[in-house]
Amino acid sequence: MTHIQVRADPGSSVRAAFDRLGGVVEMPADRRFIVITVPVRAGFPAVEAAVGSWAADHDSGWEYGNVYDDGGGVLPWLRTA
To answer: Which domain of life is it from (predicted)?
Structure first.
């Protein structure tokens, strides 16, 4: 007898969370990273809640990209959005 265990796609829950925010989730087949693009109108609190919850459930870290400059200030494109 052969048993096949099917694991749920680890990206499915994060995709569902960001679909609600109008976001796009991308990851390579080996799942070594996930890139999430979200419209500014979704708001930082909603993004932080969605990704923070997923990261905690998967013992993973996360950080914003293309939002803050090297000194921790908000990048100009975001100030005008």
So the answer is: Bacteria
What is the domain count for the chain? 1
Q: What SS3 string covers 12-39?
A: HHHHHHHHCCCCEEECCCCCCCCEEECC
pTM for the full predicted model: 0.71
The count of C-alpha atoms lying within 13 angstroms of the C-alpha of 67, restricted to the half-sphere facing its C-beta, is 11
Task: Tell whether 55 is covered by a domain.
Answer: yes
Amino acid, single-letter form, for residue 65: G
Residue 4 lies in a domain: no
Tens digits of residue pLDDT in 19-31: 999 999 998 888 7
Is the CB of residue 74 less than 8 Å from the CB of residue 64? no
Q: Which domain holds residue 26?
A: 12-60+67-79
Within 10 angstroms of residue 57's Cβ, the number of other Cβ atoms is 11
